[in-house]
Amino acid sequence: MFVYKGHLLLDGLFYLGINMKPFLYLAAALFTLTGNCMSKENLTFTEANKSHEALIHTWLAKDHIKPYFYGDGLKNTLKNLELFVNGIDRNDDYSFKHFVAFCDGKPFGFIMTSPIDGPHSPDDPYDKWFIEGKKTMTLDLLIGEENLLGKGLGTQMIKEFIQSRDVDFVLIDPAVSNKRAIHVYEKAGFSQKEEFIPSFNPTPHVMMRLETTSTSH
Question: What is the pLDDT of residue 198?
Answer without folding.
Answer: 84
